[in-house]
Amino acid sequence: MGSLMSSSPSSRRGARRGAGLAVSLITAAAAVTINDAVAGRDGLRATARDETCSPVVKVERRNPLDPGNGYAWPDMYAGTWLQPTKRFVRFEPRKIGNIEGAVHAHVYGGVTGLQPTPALTRDFFDFSVEHFSYLTKMAPGRQGQDTFLGNITWRLDGYTRKHAFSHQYLERSIGIVPFGGVPPSKHWQALSSTMLRAVVLSMTDALQRVVVATCDEAHAMRAREALQGLERVIVHNLNLEKCQLPYLPRATQATLKRCLIQRARRERHVYRNEVCQSWLHGEDFEYVMYNDADLVLHARCIRSLGKAMDEDQTLIILPHKLQTFAKDDDPLPELGVAPSIRDLTHDVDSASCCDSGTYPALKHLNQGSFDGCQNFWYNCPTMLALYDFARFDKGTYTPLLLGNEHGRKCILSETREACGRSRRLTVQRQYLVPLLAFGPNNQFEGLLEALTVAKLVGRTLLLPRYFDPHYRDTHSQKKKFADVFDESSLHEFTSVEFVDDDTIKLWKTSPKILASPLNKERLAKALHNVGFDHAPRKKAFVRSHSRAADVAQAFKGFSAAGAVFVALAPLFVVDGEQELLREAARYRVRSERVRTLASTLREALFPGDERVLCAHVRREAETLGCVPGRRYVVCPTPQGTVPTQTLLDNIVDRAATHGASRIYLAHAGGAGFEDEPATLLASLEERGFDARTASTDTSVGFESLDPFDVSLVEQELCSIVDGFAPSARSTWSQTVVLDRSARGRRNAKPLDVGPAPVKTRRLPSH
Fold it and tell me: What's the CATH code, domain 592-742?
């Protein structure tokens, strides 16, 4: 039997984000009532909002990555739909064969004379749902489950207590929600009750009437208790013999269809039918919404959607499905990876997320393979890192992935705006194009400075697709970015992207400035590695060794000149900003592949817990930058170089300082120093050290790696061991020094100096 629930007006108070996770069923104190005065004010506000409502865009039957102007076929499933009553009553509910069929059956097949036209809004926040079942599926087993579920319940409880109507509902609209299948656990029951209230409350903000249908009286009683005090809400027990899915959604839609048909025909027995009487309350409805009991609705442009359906009776308007994730400090944070979350003090209705027309994650999947993602791309941290997250203090305060279930991305704006009709909004953004040249470690340092500059000036850094090997390295190929560094960690530091087709088009048609001198050959190679084919014609100059303020001032001029792209050779641009570089180095993390190889190498060479010192010896073949009267490891001349014996003594000294009994020798030999590694290892063994190097030890399996990979693995090893002794004028050493310094690890004095250290500075190596 159905029941109509109502309440008297009650005030609404903002909820504090308390630390406790205690959960209580929501009472009538959170009741929603709209009196005439409020309705009048909302009418004015709604009129203003209509001006910022984005248009609906039709769904095209195509693969997401195929070119097109509309949404692709996979974009449309969200567990919710809105359609005209005229079309709904022609639908046959028996077509519903599973829970997804409650939506799919409507959009995949037509009805007589009204083939479906699925459509979504261009602004994700205009019509969307927060999908909580994915988050609840993350709940662990017995241990930690209560706390995890309690945390979600607390978020939804806060939402219902803080929720306030922002606009008038769509007149002559009715929504239906099936509610059943709740596990017997008290924590699951508390969560389901709180979630149901949040879902229905969000629907009453958009619809004139909401019907919650259950399959038995136990669920009906739970629903009535959870929804106490809400106006325009019906709870009805259908008394089904089978409560499993899809019987409840099917029966819910079939019941509403029967009542609407009887009402339209003005059949006399409808007024004697208690079910239809309680569901419709003697009113006519022109719009119908179906929603699952775990989807919190955002429908701020519901009246605009009503107008669209008035013009096209074939429309089925579908919301964007926003995935919810666990917060960083929640129990079991690995279940919800959110690389960077923008905390916003307002709610979703005050922001916008405009469709980008792109699917970043899908482009990075290998021919549809999900690898270890358990059939969902958003289970992969590397895929999630391509997207932004937002958490709204006046909403559910749950991190939301700013993209749909199939990877279509939207671009967040913290203010309401009318999303334009262009497929891509990149023209509103400004980019920094790093021109990474010279040897690999000069490119790595250039990347570090590029990250720093991008953050300083607020531009999105376009990451290089490849790194070049050393010009004397004839045995190595270019390395993909993902083979060298972990992209996901960079997103935590600043905004980064890879070049895609849309960016290439933008590059060809938008203003761009070349802000650093670089010879023609290196410029072309560096641009190609990013993804562009020709250099900007307009040139500028950024002074080397600039302070942060000077760099920022220069880029203000570039922005004032309308430059969407600034191409910059970043080596030594902000060389003096060591703190900024050190902060960026925290997020410049080598790829998982390299980290695994380095960990394996350490275990193979130095099992156990004894301390290890890594000594980097960079012997150069050229005299570039060598200063008469000052000896450096990299200087090859007898007058300029550090002799082998002195080098040995310095290594022993650094090992003693760090309490290391084991030494890893990372040796890059120049002409005339081919036998030095064996000499150093033998001498260190004579002095009682366990000294090893992968380049001379065939047992560690480095034979299959090219020199570029060997160098990467050795760098990572030197970054994680107990101590590191660098060669002062080597960018290879400088990379490791910054890695260690950024993570609070000690570095020894350079091997170039004795007891009295001398000042050193970095020197580019070709």
Answer: 3.40.50.11350
**What single-letter DSSP state applies at residue 177?**
E
C-alpha 555/C-alpha 459 separation (Å) is 10
Residue listed under structure tokens 């019987």: 247
Q: Which residues contact 323 (CB under 8 A, 6 or more apart)?
A: 131, 134, 378, 400, 401, 403, 405
**Is cis: bond before 434, omega within 30 of 0?**
no
- The whole-number pLDDT of residue 2 equals 46
**What is the phi/psi pair of residue 296, to 5°?**
-80, 125
8 Å CB contact between 150 and 19: no
Among 406, 398, 399, smallest CA distance to 375 is for: 406
Tell me how far apart the alpha carbons of residues 303 and 127 are, in angstroms, rounded to a whole number: 11
The label of the residue with tokens 């310095």 reads: 650
> To which H or E segment does residue 739 belong?
helix 731-742
| Exposed / middle / buried, residue 574 (Cβ in 10 Å: 0-12, 13-18, 19+) | buried
pLDDT, tens only, 504-538: 988 988 889 999 878 889 999 999 999 998 888 88
For the chain, domain boundaries: 55-413, 426-585, 592-742
State which fold the 426-585 domain adopts: Rossmann fold (3.40.50)
Please give the model's pTM, rounded to 2 decimal places: 0.53
CA distance 243 to 180: 7
Query: Comparing 426-585 with 592-742, is the CATH topology the same?
Result: yes
